[in-house]
Design a protein that fits this description.
The complex is a heterodimer of chains A (117) and B (112). Chain A is mainly beta and 117 residues long. Chain A contains no helices and eleven strands. In chain A, the strands form two sheets. In chain A, strands 2, 4, 5, 6, 9, 10 and 11 form a seven-stranded mixed beta sheet that branches. A four-stranded antiparallel beta sheet of chain A has the order 1-3-8-7, with no helix packed on it. By secondary structure, chain B is mostly beta strands. Chain B is built from no helices and eleven strands. In chain B, strand 6 and strand 7 form a beta hairpin. Classes of the chains: A mainly beta (117), B mainly beta (112). At the A-B interface, strand 5, strand 9 and strand 10 of A face strand 4, strand 5, strand 9 and strand 10 of B.
């Protein structure tokens, strides 16, 4: 079974630009979560999508958005990039149990490392 | 508010030593607690998941415990090896929030 894949793996952008990151979950997983990891703030939850609907959102500005397609693939978009957006962006997929509760582990992709200059 | 704290932030031990990593959480409605490992520049690898109804889980040289009443979890690594060197993260999944909240991690170095 193929793991979670993320593209691109590395990205360099300049302030003010926008960026789109892609995540393909494990086959059969319908929940996709996104996280931002920085040395100062650690791993922070961005949002979660399940069956094409945003189910949960973290405390990030509206510049951060995402979507999920019918095949469960997900994209996240960051507009008007700031220097502080430089981070490792991780995507994780999982299957949900009854009532949409996470009952098994999330499987993480290798991440996209974004550098904003 | 869900908060997760890990102590110590960094730990260096000689090979062969047994060690314990600590994780504290404030979520009284925790659904499960997970331990992950992260190698430099890489994604996360799941180690153990403990449901709120369980007290511990074991996998090989790893044993994780969960005490909901005190809001604590520990990860015990037996007979540490240089290959265990990595950052270890615990994460609280709150059933009320459906969010996985991570601790700041413990950077472990096992010296050969």
């Amino acid at each position: 079974k193929a793991g979670v894949t993320q593209t691109p793996r590395y990205l360099i952008k300049t302030r003010g630009q926008q960026v789109t990151l892609s995540c393909s979950p494990i086959s059969g997983h319908r929940s996709v979560s996104w996280y931002q990891q920085t040395p100062g703030q650690g791993l922070q939850f961005l949002f979660e999508y399940f069956s094409e609907t945003q189910r949960n959102k973290g405390n990030f500005p509206g510049r951060f958005s995402g979507r999920q397609f019918s095949n469960s693939r997900s994209e996240m978009n960051v507009s008007t990039l700031e220097l502080g957006d430089s981070a490792l962006y991780l995507c994780a997929s999982s299957s949900l149990g009854l009532a949409g509760i996470l009952q098994e582990t999330q499987y993480f992709g290798p991440g996209t490392r974004l550098l904003v200059l | 508010k869900q908060e997760v704290t890990q102590i110590p932030a960094a730990l260096s031990v000689p090979e062969g030593e047994n060690l314990v990593l600590n994780c504290s959480f404030t979520d009284s409605a925790i659904y499960n607690l997970q331990w992950f490992r992260q190698d430099p520049g890489k994604g996360l690898t799941s180690l153990l998941l403990i449901q709120s109804s369980q007290r511990e889980q074991t996998s090989g040289r790893l044993n994780a415990s969960l005490d909901k009443s005190s809001g604590r979890s520990t990860l015990y690594i037996a007979a540490s090896q240089p290959g265990d060197s990595a950052t270890y993260l615990c994460a609280d999944y709150g059933g009320a929030t459906n969010k996985l909240i991570f601790g700041t991690g413990t950077l472990l170095a096992v010296q050969p």
